[in-house]
Amino acid sequence: VHWLTTILIVLPVAGALLVAVMPLTSYWLGSLAALVSLIEIGVWITCASKFDFGSGALQLDQRASWFSDLQVSWHVGQYRFSLWIVGMSVVCMAACTIYGWWVGRDRGRAYFSLMLLLTGAIVGVFTAQDLLLFYAFFEAMLIPLYILIGVWGGAERLRATITFVVYTVVGSLLMLAAIIVFGLQQGTFDMTRIGTSSSTWLFLGFVVAFCIKSPIFPLHGWLPITYRESPAEVSAVLSGIVGKAGLYGLLRIAIPFFPGPVHDWRIVLLILGSISLVYGSLLAFRAPDFRGVVMYSSLAQAGLIVLGLFANNSLGFDGAVLQIVNHGLISTSLFLLAGMIERRTGTRGEFALLGGMARGRPALATVVMAVGIISLAVPLSTSFAGEFLILAGVFQQGWIWAVFGAVAIVLAAMYMLRAISGVLHQNVGAAVDDRARDLRLGELAIVVPLVLCLVGLSAWPNLVSGRSHANTPTELVAR
Amino acid sequence: VIAKPHVDWFALAPTLSLLAASGLLLMAAVLVPRQARRPVGAFLCFAGFVAAGIWAGFLDARSPGASAVVHDTMWRDRWGALAQVILAGCGAVSVLISYRERMRDEHVAEYYSLLAAAGAGMVFFVQAGNLMTLFLALEWFSISLYVLTAIDIDLIGSLEAGLKYLVVGAVGSATLLFGSALVYGITGQLAFDKIAAAGHAHDAMLVVGLAMIIAGLMFKSSAAPFHMWTPDAYQGAPTPVTAFMSSATKVAALVVTYRVLITAFPHDEHLWRWGIAIIACISLAWGNIGALVQRNVKRILAYSAVSHAGFILIAIAAANRLGGRALLYYLIPYCAMSLGAFAVVAARERELGVPVTLQNLAGFGWERPFLGVSMWVFMLGMLGFPLTGGFIGKFYVFAAAYDHGFWWLIVVGVVATMISAYYYLGIVRAMYFRDTAELRLAPAGGSPPQDLLLTSGVFISLVVTVGSFFAVQPLIDVAKSAAKALPF
Predict the structure, then answer these.
(1) Cβ–Cβ of A135/B386 closer than 8 Å?
(2) Each residue of A344-373: pLDDT tens digit?
(3) Alpha-helical runs (H) found in A287-398
(4) Mean pLDDT across the stretch B276-284?
(5) pLDDT of residue B400
(6) Across the interface, do A147 and B428 touch by the CB < 8 Å criterion?
(7) Band (B488; pLDDT cuts 50, 70, 90)
(8) Helix or strand (DSSP H, E) at B182
(9) Of A253, A385, A419, B231, which is most buried, counting CB atoms within 10 Å of its CB?
């Protein structure tokens, strides 16, 4: 049992090394990577089956000293809420890896080993229980992403990688400085042993890094060019999973360990969250392309989740965790669909060239419609449940925040319906002809499981929210 | 009559084995037939470095306490022995990189002889126990390096680089000598520990002497503002020589700087701490900003060497429990990354026959997957990214600075790292993100020659770079016991 989390991290990394050296063709390397990512899901299911959801303690944990004079250790494990975030990540990573295989990315050896490496790093971020280990995984995510965008990205990819790297490196190095000071002050880097701190500087070091990653207004400057220039499945990873690492960091580190600064800065963060929410929604409403809508909606969703987190009560936390899982699945599906649409029309998803794709393409229309409807938080959907919990939580902080949230839900309906009709309905676009066929079986095999997860959660959101019960911050601090 | 001192031959064994190799190589230069000189020369030199490394390893194991040997002119301790192991490793890998370098056949044995002699000088240098041996060893390896830099007279700029290095290096040596004379003048002592015991800590003459000694040593470790020779010498020298200079010289100079400051000038600690901290800041700023505008990869790496001197000087400025081990730990992955990076540059240079720039590095990562991935790892390591020892090295250096209360040095270091991301990742970008077809680069004729020795040198560097990330505990234990030899 203790090895399970370690296996969850090491398996994709080992797979990446295997893919890097196996003398196979791109196609077979892709199938190997797909197989590894599916086994990874299997390992996660084993984790979930061994998990005691009644306990809020760290489980499936393993600890081994790394270097003892500064008390740094390999300590990994999962809390209730991290288990679900990890599950969402491995499912979405599998979908994205398989999509890369289906599309047949060139230079397959490099591509698939980087995707697997990324999987390992992401799982590491969500399970690390040592500050330095957390940082190592947090930075390790950047390495494959940099190459994935730079090699397989669009025409402006060089500029995109520079923007992306500058933002993230600035953030993460601030966090490194904060981690060093925090860890040395506490005498250990083990997150299960350190106590709270009242230093505003350290708090801000962490928060800035996490807000860049999420992203939260006004630190979202890297978002437009990076999401537009990345390959579709990498955008999916960025928005669906990597962004969640920032939100997870707020939940696991910034909020529990800095109660004083959280109290002082709560209003600022609630304001920034609200601005992200409303501003992101408005930008999404004005975006000229499908990806634009999806990426700005993920800015809005990050804002909403921050509202839930800084509501600082159990309703808000539960809602935030549920919404992290929801939005991971939704965003991954939408970016993959955007990639599929762009590929079959030969466009970059501009609404001016699209439209009328529903006619004669029932599978595409159904899937886009289903994901779109769930994402705009229609009642009975899982994102409705998540947003409701967040709004209920943040209402206790002041009705004004709930007003922002409610306004944004209306805006979400507007931008999402506009995007759906811009692609599926209205007049047939210039780029839409008979060569743009319906979704193929392989593509359905990638997105339908994601949609089924969403539908399943809609029917039973309690599966996550009842079994995550995001530990209240005080439970996560040892002393 | 001067009494003959007792000589501890064991403590001298690393130096002597390299000197023996150097002497044998000089004989080989005339006795061995021309076509066999290259393999014989490389083998002898490699064997010399390996022997020195093994002796130093034994020395490390057998010297639990520090003791002065050979009439107190040298120290036999773990601090020196560990540095010798690192130096010997650098030298051995440099030989692997050198083997296929296009050199005139008539020079090849002399080349290896000088390499071994430079190694011997450095190995002696890190054991130096008084100002006389310090200066002697410094000149010994410096003169070897001046010649090595200029040895390839067919290479454009090599001679110029050698001359620049000679002139600037001579200024550095003279400064060191002048400073030593001042210190001797006021204290009447040459041995480091006796200088400390002699008092006079606040005498202006001693402080001026201290400053000049620091300046002289900083010339060798290429810290700004004493780095003027670095870009030109690194660019002009044959690439294997650059690899050796950038790794081994830095180890020797910085390890000795720490030893001299701590053993000879403990009472002026408050002064040199600040001096070193300021030099560290200048190096970090100058090195990183200078590297931003370079196109030649060797020049980029030269400026990066300046900035790394800055990082290591942070550990020296901290000079506490963590500082010594941070210094020694940092040097291990740094040497591996530096050697490896220059080896990859050498491979590309031999392939194209022209100096390597960001422009003609394009597509390299796809053409030579192993070297490309290695270069990628080395660049990430220099940037201080996880999965390489560079990350842990920076972490330790910052931890040492924080432990002493120099938290602002962390801020400087972090800002410097942010800037350095641009050019380190720029090299990765050049290798992978454009391909040769896009740039219409003409290949230099045929597929590149297999170079097993260079590849194995890169492989060793890669293993050390990545391995030092995972095996932190054993390396830190070794560094810790080495740092205990010094009185902090």
Answers:
(1) yes
(2) 888 888 888 888 888 888 899 999 999 999
(3) 290-310, 314-345, 362-375, 382-395
(4) 95
(5) 93
(6) yes
(7) low
(8) helix B158-187
(9) A419
Asked if A137 has any chain B CB less than 8 Å from its own CB, the reply is yes
Single-letter code of the amino acid located at B67? S
Listed in sequence order, the residues at least 6 apart from B266 whose beta carbon sits closer than 8 Å to its beta carbon are B196, B487
CA B445 – CA A322 distance, rounded (Å):
60
Mind listing the pLDDT tens digit for each residue in A304-315?
999 999 988 888
User: What is the CB neighbour count within 10 angstroms for residue B369?
Assistant: 13
CB B426 within 8 A of CB B359: no
Nearest one of B331, B329, B342, B254 to B302, comparing CA atoms: B342
Q: Kindly report, residue by residue over B31-80, the tens digit of the pLDDT.
A: 998 888 899 999 999 999 999 999 999 999 988 888 888 888 888 999 99
Quickly tell me which residue has 């600035």 as its tokens: A170
Q: Which segments of A69-222 does DSSP mark as H helices, in order?
A: 80-103, 108-127, 131-152, 157-186, 200-213
Q: For residues A145-174, give the mean pLDDT.
A: 89
Scan residues 305-324 of B and list those with Cβ closer than 8 Å to A: 322
Q: Which residue has the tokens 């001096």?
A: B275
User: pLDDT class for A127, splitting at 50, 70, 90?
Assistant: very high
pLDDT above 90 covers what percent of chain B? Answer: 67
- Provide the 8-state DSSP code for B248: I
- At A119, the pLDDT band (50, 70, 90 cuts) reads very high
Best B376, B379, B397, B402 residue to mutate vs chain A (most A CBs within 10 Å): B402
AA identity, residue B96: L
Residue of B nearest to A66 (CA): B473
Please give the torsion angle defined by the CA atoms of residues B226, B231, B236 and B241, in that order, rounded to the nearest 10 degrees: 70
| DSSP codes of every residue in A400-414 | HHHHHHHHHHHHHHH
Q: Give, in degrees to the nearest 5, the angle at Cα B336 between B140 and B164.
A: 40
Residue with tokens 């890896």: A97
Q: Are A2 and A60 in contact (CB under 8 A)?
A: yes
A246: phi then psi, degrees, rounded to nearest 5: -65, -45
- Contact partners, residue A12, CB within 8 Å, separation at least 6: A36, A37, A40, A116, A117, A119, A120, A123
B399 touches chain A (CB under 8 A): yes
Alpha-carbon distance B336 to A1, whole Å?
38
Q: Is the pLDDT of residue A381 over 70?
A: yes
Find chain A residues with C-beta within 8 A of B432's C-beta: 147, 150-151
Q: From the CA of A182, how many Å to the nearest CA of chain B?
A: 10
- The structure tokens listed for A32 are 């190997």
Identify the residue whose tokens are 């690899």: B243
CA distances (Å), origin B404, targets B130, B223, B293, B317, B323: 28, 22, 34, 9, 9
ipTM score of complex: 0.92
Please indicate if any CB of chain A lies within 8 Å of the CB of B387.
Answer: yes
CB contact set of B17 (below 8 Å; sequence gap of 6+): B48, B51, B52, B55
Whole-prediction pTM: 0.94
For the segment A324-335, the average pLDDT, to the nearest whole number, is 93
Rounded to an integer, the average pLDDT of A48-74 is 87
- Which of B118, B124, B146, B156 shows the shortest CA–CA distance to B137? B124
Q: How far is CA A281 from CA A28, A292, A416, B239, in A?
A: 42, 11, 10, 55
